Request: fold
Amino acid sequence: MRRLWLFLLILLLAACGGEDGGPQATAPIAPPRVTATRAPTATAPPTEAIAEASSTPPPEASPTLAEAAATEPAPSPMPTAPPGAPLTGVSLVPVADGFDAPTFVGNAGDERLFVVEQRGRIRIVSNGELLPEPFLDIREQVGSQSNEQGLLSIAFHPDYAGNGVFFLDYTDRNGDTVISRWQVSDDPNRADASSETVLLQIAQPYPNHNGGQLQFGPDGYLYVGMGDGGSGGDPQNNAQNPGTLLGALLRLDVDAEGGGAHYAIPPDNPYIGDENGRNEVWAIGLRNPWRFSFDRETGDLYVADVGQNMYEEVNFVPAGQGAGLNFGWNWMEGNHCFRDGCDPGAFYAPVAEYSHGQGECSITGGYVYRGAAFPAMRGNYLYGDFCSGRLWTLFRQPDGSWVNNAIGVAPGSLTTFGEGFDGELYLTTREGVLYRIEQP
Ligand SMILES: [Ca+2]
Reply:
């Protein structure tokens, strides 16, 4: 019954919000059709290519990355799965509710979903049931007074089944970013609350733009999303300065230690040997990469960067590339100059952007769908907007061009997407509901 209610609610909201075509899409946009049947979705023509495909260099794996990948567990093998097609709609099915401002959904390589709450708890949904006891509760050490602060994400070690190690990104009671390593206890549903080892503590000059995403890349390294430090317009110019850890993606080797730190620097990080850049920095020019993810099948990287007042953007980085990239902020906001005198050609361009015309305010990046339950969703990168709840898909066609479709509206403030161990996708609303994303 509740499922039916929510489905009707989604239908209603989608109908109300579906008049506009969405973010800078030159492809014909269908209004969100959560009632679309599988057949028209699967047979939707690829239509016209959209912007910026030519700015994307072809994939070219570096020998180092290829070598590293050979020693990593292979992603979920699905060699014979159909290729999918651009989505025109989705339905959202409630899985569990009652969460306190959920900020992230992760998995530990099994069926459980770990829902991160902003104030500092991590809760487990197992076989559709929310367990009464949290996996971890660190509310006493997390600062979440500002709405962009708090416990922001969890990343399980690629060998979590063997070592029980996971990582957290949160802001502490001073508002500074902490990235730390933790350990599960003897109970697989409880973390060892005394196991924290701090890897990085990064001073935050302002309360907002804390980034917060942790993801392991296909190279086995831990990637960390850092915002520009906050305020507005990046007054300290942190994003264009590789000498700070702000406004950047960082890359750490968490399986080694060196230089007095509880991590090591991957040997091909781009600023090694550059006295103007920090060794941890992997790419710069980001304002607040609240969410980024790797395509579990291809290793391609999608970085959604939150804009200032005008444009939200999605960046695509082919697998094996990206070290040393400059994503443009604060010279650029999306594909537009933010500062006078900027040279758009000097920066890596997004593959999609949208403006704030329909109540949008802040992009929430998602994942490429690689699950098995909904074959027509395969290959679609889902993303949306925190304020309006509007959802879009980006689909990369075989020729490298992109289709960008509006596909619906989430019933609430869209805080995050999440990926299950099996590649199924989820999202949460700030109002406290976890939804599974399904093909209509
Ligand atoms: Ca940019």
